[in-house]
Sequence to fold (858 residues):
Amino acid sequence: MLALQILVNGLLLGGLYVLIAQSLNLIFGVMGVVNLAHGAFIVVAGLFTYWFASSTGINPLAVLPFVFIVMALVGAGLQPLLIEPLMKMGRSKAELLSLMVTFGLDYVLVELALQVWGSSFVSVPYLQSSWKLAGLDFSQALVVTGMFAALVSALLYWWLNRTDSGKSLLAASQSETGAICCGIDVKRVRMLAFALGVALAAAAGVLVIIVEALAPQTADDLTLLAFVIIALGGLGSYVGVAVAALLLGVAQSITGYFVGGNAEYVLPYVLLILVMVALPGRFRRA
Amino acid sequence: MPGNEDTGRRVRGVIAAVVVLAIFVAIPLRSRGYLLQLGTDTLSAVTLAYGWNLIGGFAGYFSFGQVSFYGLGAYATALLVLRAHMPWYFAALASGLVGAAAALVLGRIMLRLRGILFALGMLGLARILEVVFNNWHYAGASVGLSLPAVLTPVAVYVGMGLLALISFCITAYFVYSGFGLDVMSLNEDEDAALSVGVPTTRVKVIAFVLSGALPAIAGGLTAWNHSYIDPTSAFDPGVDLLTVVYVMFGGIGTLWGPLIGAVVLMIVGEEFLVYFPNLELALYGIVVIATVLAFPGGLVGLANRFGWLMRPIILAPKGLPAGAPPERAPPRGTQPVLEVRDLTVRFGGLTAVDRVSLSVARGETVCIIGANGAGKTTFFNAITGVVQPTSGEILYFGDPISHLPTFRRAQRGMARSFQIPRLMPSFTVWENVLLASRHGRQSHRVVEHTAWVLHTMGLAGMWRDPVSRLTPGFQRQLEFARVLALSPELVMLDEVMAGMTREEQEQVRGVIRRLPEFGIAGVACVEHVIAAVADLCDRMVVLDFGRKIAEGPPGVVLKDPVVVRAYLGEPI
Fold:
């Protein structure tokens, strides 16, 4: 029973990770850009939700659509300014320089968040109890956020594979030149991908703050967590990333129970290095 | 970008820099107090920036975790002072060794990764270390360690100054020496560097070790200076941000950039912080974004536009010497130059090369032809060591070489050209050839040999030009020159004629005909333009779907019905 409970907790946590990672994956897949400000967007959205929900008493989940739209606009505004100018420099150069730019952006966002909300950890007190089913505890917050995350991920998957705009995004991520030849406006696709990636990160932030406490300085941990998952799942693969997110959730739940909180915290980084070093072939590009 | 500068200007520049530095060093010493602290912090920033620049700037391996070494050094010093009662200066020096040892071990693991993965792997490493030190009771866990509060600010300042000077000298060595050229070639094209004999792993590990030792000593001195160290400040990712900002702002991969960037931003930051006490990192974030987008070369890049602070052309003599051809080495034994036995290469389920044998005798030119996807380039890659063969044997002058890495094969005289020239784009013509000469069989007379190759290949008129200014035809010629620079015994040419005009083909044919007089014992080439090689080669080998289907003199092979059907197409 205990084993099952750990598994359930892990899977629910993993459900949230799917959303955290998928948004980073989207931007990486299309532009080859690892957005180091990813965690900062999550944190900013989460803290905004905390502030909004606690000062108005409105249901935090109701804030989600609003945050999603606002952050999509922010992403659409930032991409032409910060990322697009690098795209002319060729993929490998753009990859590295975009790391620099988003590294800078990360600090700008985190410092501003620190100014606005301070450095203490906060969480939205919502859905604190748990449902009992077949002798297992299902944390309400995790179930609801996990379901929201699954819903958003499913919508993303459907959009990517079933709509014209989604397909043109997939096409651009596979071959930029090929996509241009098919009449796809790759510039617009890149802007769309970045906007969507930022908006999804923000949506994840709204959900994360319901489940666990956030502070501006946790931004880098979230970025790295997301990166570990997309590295595990195979850079750019949507199904692989979903599986990796669930597995990581379970693995963390297991180490958290048997070894302790520190091990749970370090696990993603250890996995990151182990995976990259043990499977170097997968990460080397010809 | 390297450039030309006359010596007089250079000397004047160095004198000016020394005077400025002397003033800069003297002011804090006279005033003590606040300025002394600012001076020490600035010198620490300069050291960190130079350390990061060695691996991130010259080798092109961006690290977001060099703070790991800073933190390790700080802890090593604190522990040595507290537990082993070592004097602080010895402890700081020993911390440099700790940093170097850590970088040696970590480098061998982490440097297998490239690009984003290396950068983020290092970021993860710093987080792991922070957690480890947060829980390690011997090192004070999350409370940290307090050192005896013995104030030696002047001594620390002088120590940090010496360290910054050493960092500068190491960087100067990178900018002026052949070893520096090896390091920079990693940033240009690592695979091409391997193919001209650069031992890339060793080179980048050395750069990484130096770039780990410097911040470790700086961390040690800082720990002593602050009399306190804890995991949060020792492994603060903000330190990495600042270091990256200094380097980018000053000019990445340059001699003066880290110094200028760190000094300017430290002083400007100090003035600014009075007005924006809590936005320091946000402002630096904006600086790095603006630098990357608006002037990627940083301040030194801007100066370069006026011809100032240019990187010198490495080991370039004043004028191009006439050079001399290499002495002929006595022929080695009687074995054939190359003998490949039953070589097989499989990628997953696909057999790209299927039990192909090939031999190249002394003085022989063998040409491999075949349709696209016949496995020609893979066959070449397996011989040069770029691809690991599944089975089979490769003998070079009778010695098995399958276990040798690519760069060793190149060093022993097996030179290859690439289908699309893979030159080092921001090097000069001279440096491209020099890089190969350094690792070839004439490495004891690099300058004469390089000069001779440039004259022989008709590149003497443009020897100081950057590669980006060459026409595609000259770029191919330079690729050929690089092959000759290794002073090889076996030359392997991968579709050198592809996409060439008639005249260019004629030029290359001329060079191939002359190869024997350069001491080259055998030639193997892969070619599509059959007409251009049919009369040059002694033997032709035809591959089809990874198998050898014919072999013999060109006249016979080209009339073989099997070959005609597989390759040239059947008459309708």
